[in-house]
């Protein structure tokens, strides 16, 4: 399957990418730990089958100092001992926010998240899950491939 379309090569796509990157930058400037944000983005991208985003978030996580073993274990995080309770809450939140049922995120998961993260971090986490799912959908729709992402490449769209 070849990429269908270069969204960023269009005027409209470039404008949207700039605004989207600005939203992502706001999340990364929040007090939510960068490695937690990358783990959450990676897990949602795995669930959505977005090779481009998986590639991006693995590389950005490594650049942020994340341990490669932990990255290899994200898909099976429940069956590991390498994630903190706070990270487990964030990963569970990412999964429920990605699967999205009529309930959204369960009360139990919400309680876990709010136990470990303050209001600013929760706000960033809510927005991050929404953003990564939107990014996954755009990349999957246009058949973007993983493997060639260069760390920091999205910075070109930040204002």
UniProtKB/TrEMBL annotation:
Q: Which InterPro entries match?
A: AhpD-like, AhpD_core, CMD-like
Gene3D superfamilies attached to this UniProt entry: AhpD-like (1.20.1290.10)
Organism domain of life: Bacteria
> Which residues belong to any copy of the Carboxymuconolactone decarboxylase-like domain?
15-96
> One Pfam match, by short name?
CMD
PANTHER family xrefs = 4-CARBOXYMUCONOLACTONE DECARBOXYLASE FAMILY PROTEIN (AFU_ORTHOLOGUE AFUA_6G11590) (PTHR34846), BLL7811 PROTEIN (PTHR34846:SF7)
Name used for this protein in its record:
Carboxymuconolactone decarboxylase family protein
What is the scientific name of the source organism?
Lentzea indica
């Amino acid at each position: 399957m070849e990429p269908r379309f270069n969204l960023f090569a269009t005027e409209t796509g470039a404008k949207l990418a700039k605004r989207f990157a600005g939203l992502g930058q706001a999340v990364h400037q929040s007090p939510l730990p960068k490695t937690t944000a990358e783990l959450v983005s990676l897990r949602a991208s795995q669930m959505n089958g977005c090779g481009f985003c998986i590639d991006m978030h693995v590389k950005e996580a490594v650049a942020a100092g994340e341990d490669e073993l932990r990255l290899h274990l994200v898909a099976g995080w429940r069956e590991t001992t390498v994630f903190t309770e706070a990270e487990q809450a964030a990963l569970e939140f990412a999964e429920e926010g990605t699967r999205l049922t009529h309930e959204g995120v369960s009360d139990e998961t919400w309680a876990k998240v709010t136990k470990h993260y303050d209001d600013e971090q929760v706000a960033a986490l809510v927005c991050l899950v929404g953003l990564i799912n939107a990014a996954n959908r755009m990349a999957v729709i246009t058949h973007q491939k993983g493997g060639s992402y260069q760390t920091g490449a999205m910075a070109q769209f930040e204002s």
